[in-house]
Amino acid sequence: MSRGLNKVMIIGHLGKDPEMRYTPSGRPVTTFTVATSRTWNTADGERHTDTEWFNVVSWGNLAEICKQYLTKGQQVYIEGRLQTRRWEDSEGAKHTSVEIVASEMMMLGDRRDTGQTQAIGSSEPPEYEDDYPF
Questions:
Q1: Cα–chain-centroid distance for residue 39?
Q2: In this structure, are residues 49 and 35 in contact, taking their beta carbons and an 8 Å threshold?
Q3: Quick one: DSSP state of residue 42?
Q4: Averaged over 65-82, what is the pLDDT?
Q5: What is the pLDDT of residue 112?
Q6: Which CATH superfamily is domain 8-117 in?
C-alpha cells in the first residue's frame, strides 16, 4: 500500500492578531498569518532577504488557544499540513488559496514576554532548557 506525506513546519512571526470565527455548527476556527524570512549573500557579496507569508488555520481547542495567547509580532512554531481551497466569488471569478492547517503550535521567543514556551496540540510535554542540569 502506498502512502503520501503532507507535513509542514514553519517558524516565523505573526503578521496580525489571530481572528476567530465559529462555523454554523459552533466549531471554532482561528486564522492568522505567519512571516518567515531567509537571508543569503550573492556571489558578489550582496545581502538579500526574502520573506514568505503563510496563511494558517487552526480548529477546535487549538483555535481557541491561538486566539487567546497569540499576538501580532510574536514568534511561533507551527506544524500542520498544506491545504488548497478553491472557490468562485459572486461575480464568477475563481480564487485559490493555499494555507497551513495547524495541528501543533508552540509559542517561541523570550520567556519574559510570553510567560513560558509552550507546546500546544502535541501529546508530548514541552521541554525547557532549565530542566537540564548541564
A1: 20
A2: no
A3: -
A4: 97
A5: 52
A6: Nucleic acid-binding proteins (2.40.50.140)
Q: Is 127 helix (H, G, I), strand (E, B) or coil?
A: coil
Name the amino acid, one letter, at 95: H
Q: What is the mean predicted confidence (pLDDT) over 39-56?
A: 94
Give 40's contacts (C-beta < 8 A, 6+ positions apart). 47, 48
Give the pLDDT mean for 55-69: 97
Q: Which residues make Cβ contacts (< 8 Å) with residue 47, sequence separation at least 6?
A: 39, 40, 41
Q: Which of 65, 72, 73, 131 is nearest to 104 (CA)?
A: 65
Mean pLDDT of the chain: 86
What are the contacts of 12-15 at 24+ separation with CB within 8 A? 12/36, 12/37, 12/54, 12/75, 12/76, 12/78, 13/73, 13/74, 13/75, 13/76, 14/70, 14/71, 14/72, 14/73, 14/74, 14/76, 15/53, 15/72
